[in-house]
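=== Structure Prediction Worksheet ===
Name of assembly: unnamed complex
Input type: mixed (protein and possibly other molecules)
Chain count: two
Listed entries:
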Amino acid sequence: MKITGAEIIVESLKNEGVEYMFGYPGGVVIPIFHQLFNAPFRFILARHEQGAIHAADGYARASGKVGVVIATSGPGATNLVTGIATANMDSVPLVVFTGQVSRDMIGNDAFQEADVTGITRPISKHNYLVQDINDLARIIKEAFHIASTGRPGPVVIDVPVDISKGTAKFVYPDKVSLRGYKPVYEGHPGQIEKACKLIEEAKRPVIYSGGGVILSNASKELRAFVKKTGIPITTTLLGLGAYPESDPLSLRMIGMHGTCYANLAVHECDLLIAVGARFDDRVTGKVSEFAPGAKVIHIDIDPSSVKKNVQVEVPIIGDCKSVLQKMNEIVKAPKIGEWVERLMKMKEKNPLTYRDSDKVIKPQYVVEKIYELTKGGAVICTEVGQNQMWAAQFFDYQEPRTFISSGGLGTMGYGFPAAIGAQLARPDKRVFDIAGDGSIQMNIQELIVAVQHRLPIIIAILNNGFLGMVRQWQELFYDKRYSNTCIGFQPDFVKLAEAYGAAGIRIEKKEDVVGAIKKALSIKDRPVILDFNVDKEENVYPMVPAGKSVKEMITVELA
Amino acid sequence: MSQHVISVRVENRAGVLARVAGLFSARGYNIDSLAVSETELDDVSVMTIVVRGDDRIIEQVKKQLNKLIDVIKISDHSPLTSVQRELVLVKINAQPSKRPEIYQLVEIFNGKIIDISKKTLTVEVTGEPEKVDNFVELVRPYAIKELIRTGRISLSKEVL
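=== Predicted Assembly ===
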């Protein structure tokens, strides 16, 4: 029996066990929406395509499953571009359907036509333009496979409307056969042995763990590895949660706004064990002065990440989980008592801190209170900028997939729609969006989606009336010329929340912070905006200025 | 900065060339030459890419190419382990008085005259790219009207 292309899409998604699809309708996808109307999975109608794709991304990061998105051709598809690039940079598995004009119109500058495969080629893991309806089921199968295996990423399927309307026999393939795509999961045993030998001999080793550990669900193996070797561990921004930050061996976050002790530990180490991390410039600062005395072991599933920015003595291409399992079997603990003791002292002497005040609310104080009042059990989504860094610094992450943030691309407006996806994935958890007054306005229209689905997301706006991170750079490096970063002219966020049917609370005094968070936590049937009027010119410290080395770090004391 | 010849076997599909070319342009790697053709298999094409770069760049180029789903296999062809050829067509302004000299050059290079007019000769020469370079240099004094090269193609040598 033949069915339509649109039916093939829905049937394929059923086969993939899709729970949620995020998207927005439009002309050339009407045939697909016609079939989605009675599909067994839930459709979350965003209010802007960018909101839809970030929600799918937040869902994918919180659940570990593939996020699924659909938008129409032309502007629908181009509105997805930021979301595709965001997911691509942070290796988030997405399958993105876009409508396309019918095949005979392609290239004619037809109404709502855009070259979607051309536009998304450099920002997706792979993409397809469906040219034959008989390929459709196979392409969808391949897309889910490519998105979720190896180093995950977004895959775009551009579907011309005549393909959706056409008919073909539906057979969903059992497996894929892609001769050009065979990610290596098992690390080379010889390399693993070599790495373990280096570890055994190391005097000053440090583990540098990244988002790859979370993507490969290797948190348990990582914890076992730290336990067995006793090696101190720092994580990247996207690696937060892979290792409990309350543990003494945790050096917390590395990088531009990482802890002094993590950055100094890496600077002084003689062996750096990189696990699922890619030596991003926000981590390394000046590459030539990054871990200058260290040999490097690099475990990563993506060969192109290895030796891209730094030289590596022992590359291990493979899945973090499987490689760490193997290493845990044979690795012996090095003798590093003195080194660990020194780092522990360094950690005690230079904790993450800020100058608290009784007169104004410090943004860091707000994040600390959210941590205390949720007992660290919340899922924290962030926007981008100062709010993101404070959320990373002043919350002790304990579990993987509880910190959700646009790391690589640094997409403002990501956090709130991502929180919608995260809340759908984790109905058992309280989900926060720690936001700035700038970034929350980038996708504020999605508030109605959270209201509609009764999602009790708490949006904590650290409202300082500035685009804070850019202002901080202007203060430190551009003679305090606050060019276009003062956004004190603002909507009333409380009234705005109420207009959408959400709850809104403005907090202007420090003594009201705890009460407001408690009140928000008591609301369980709709989103809440907490508008914290915080210190306007608070800076994020410590800070290693861009392109500089650890030695040039600015600390709270120096600032 | 040494020159490398990278032979890339890819799925014979629309859009693959754009993927490969885009990968080079996005990273600012300059391609010296690129030849695309069919192979012994219907569904496989081969791209012979000549690119300049230090070892780190070449390693990144290869890794990035490997990352493309449509790329099946990559080999780095050195002149010792491969046979490499290129074809050039040169249209030379050649007054009858100059023609004997040009005929001689063509003969030395095992070339062919493939078109002739009152004022021009068009010559075909095939060989290793260095040989083609030499030929072009030697005919340059006769005023080249038009010149086109295929770009290098390369096959790995078999062991005896």
